[in-house]
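Question: what's this shape?

___
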Amino acid sequence: MVLHEIVHEKPIDDIDYLKERILWIWDKSDQSKINSTIHQFEKQ
């Protein structure tokens, strides 16, 4: 999974960076998927 590779590039606590990368990879039409993923990371 692509997200797994992203996480290894930089510390997981950098949520802004993570959001940026997710938005770059996923199309805007998948916004709900993106938000769900972000939410999972913030819960950790």
Notes: The mean pLDDT is 68. The two ends are 19 Å apart (CA to CA).
